[in-house]
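name: query_chain
kind: protein
chains: 1
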Amino acid sequence: MRCFSCVGTECFNQTTHSLCDNAVQCWLSISKEGDGPEKISRGCTTSDDQLKLCSPRPFSSTSDPSARYHVICCKNADYCNNGSVSSLSSLYKDNRFVDDYGQLNNLKLSLVFGLIFFLLLLLAIFYISTRRKHRRRILASRSLSFVLDTYSGDEIIHTSSAVGNNKTKEYLEQSITSGSGYGLPKLMQRSLARQISLVEQIGKGKYGEVWRGIWNGENVAVKIFLSKDEASWNREKEIYSTVAVRHSNILTHFASDMTSQNFTTQLWLITEYHVHGSLYDYLNRHILNYNQMYKICSTIATGLNHLHTEIFGAQFVQTKPAIAHRDIKSKNILVKCNGECVLADFGLAVIYFQKTDRLNIASNPRVGTKRYMAPEILDETMNMKSFEPFKRADIYALGLVLWEICRRTSSNSITEEYKPPFYDCVGSDPSFDEMRAVVCVERRRPVILNRWLSDQILNPLVNLIKECWHQNPNVRPSSLRILKTIKKLNVHL
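structure:
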């Protein structure tokens, strides 16, 4: 292939053109450096590695931004570079000037920035999605709402109530369950349990430890069972998940979980936290006036009445079975900030299904706290096949708790120091045989003080206490009658 070759003014005189042979391509260029004149050149390249940067459009140099070039290449015919190009000035003024070097670099930069923007967009979408899922999970565990059943006389009053701390007291707006009744779904329960930080141990018993924990900035109580007490843990879970068991005088349960600490399996029960602790602790630290005594007694009776009562829905559909606690004592009753009480610790509870006449219970009758055991339990004459005896055993223990409350109630500015029932008969940890000798053989009961009998408020309560701990279970009043009797005390306050 042949091409014209010239530089500068000689390119305007075709007779002075030089020629080049064996060319790979021909080229024609016009250039302008700064404010200098435009220069025209023609030439050729003889090998592929010498190919010029050709463009149908003008471009500028990356090393000298003031320089302008326009290079046209051809290889379709001999002397194909024998033509002319438009002035760079006219191309620039017509807005047709393009920086090809810059365009190439800008294209690369655009691709890089586009890729970075795309990655950042993906990260933003992932972050927002994760935050939304986390927020929904938190809101779900904090926004439970539920129906509580409370009693007033013979009526069952269905009320919507919120129990617990500011953030943990709300439940799901709808009854989200795992198939076992009210409560958090299993996955949500596990999510909640892993967000809890244990702060301090607040109690210890035969089933394990109780800790104060922090969840979402609020206090919760964490009852930790040992693996050998899994049956008790399962029973408490079962009671708390029972339909309609939630009540303002029943401890609020949030979740349960199974974890491993130091190669030891721990069974967690996460519940509402009450800063006053148990009624046992509260009575040791406080002297009660009549109003405080009334609030404590009436709310304990209300909670027990709710527990003992079987509730049926429409068309005889069971919504809550009857439940007997089997371990009523002042250490298993917690005091709320407003002075009301809640029943807790349902590891020994028995559930009764009237429709099938079936008791959900272990075969061993000798369970509970020996100091609070009813005579029929101690002498082993209790009918384990019927549900009524279990309720009457609860009533006996309730009578002992009411006696503890009376000792700490001030009347005429007189009060006694706290003492547990039978403190003057047995030691701090009495045996089964010791309690049987005192309660069944000697038929002794805690001492009733004379000042209680002469007190207008305490005297009716004393008569109720005597009925509750009667030797004959059939004489003991029902939880509903106890509640009605205690509510009558309010007339004299």
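note: The chain is about 30% helix and 25% strand.
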